[in-house]
Amino acid sequence: MDRFDPIRELDRFAQALRRETLRGMPMDLYREENRYVLSVDLPGVDPGSVDIDVDGQLLTIRAERTLHGGEGVQWLNREREGGSFLRQLSLGREIDTANITAHYDNGVLNVVIPVSEKARPRRIEVQSGSAAGAGAESGSRQVEADAGSGSGNRQVEAATA
């Protein structure tokens, strides 16, 4: 019967995590003006094997890497992973899913995810006086609304009437 060795178990757990990280698709995601840009490293993947789909608010990327070497090959070292890869991202409601585009170049898949028109920051003119209703002061001001962020940041600018 083996004795429980917590150090060995921790080491085994860390190695398993490293293997999972290697199997995954490393990615960067950033926002640039009115779009998100997702860059996924997929070296050695045939662009024809890459499949991207959107189902509701779920973006799924699938890819296949085929490693060469068949019968009669004696591997001396094999660190590159082959097989199927899958990555899923939950998209917010402020995404324009109909206009997502993708481009694969030099082993990097770039997916451009536009922010929907109704989620973009916009200016709303606030009217007062006879244009807005009886008994109000004359003049107007503009309010900048950030519909998509939910951050609650508002900016008010007074305009001369």
TrEMBL record:
UniProt cross-references to CDD domains, sorted A to Z: ACD_sHsps-like (cd06464)
Biased composition (Low complexity): 128-140
UniProt entry keywords in alphabetical sequence: Stress response
Keyword Methyltransferase listed: no
The organism's place on the tree of life at top rank: Bacteria
Ranges for domain SHSP: 18-129
Official protein name in the record: 18 kDa heat shock protein
Organism of origin: Arthrobacter saudimassiliensis
Lineage: Bacteria, Bacillati, Actinomycetota, Actinomycetes, Micrococcales
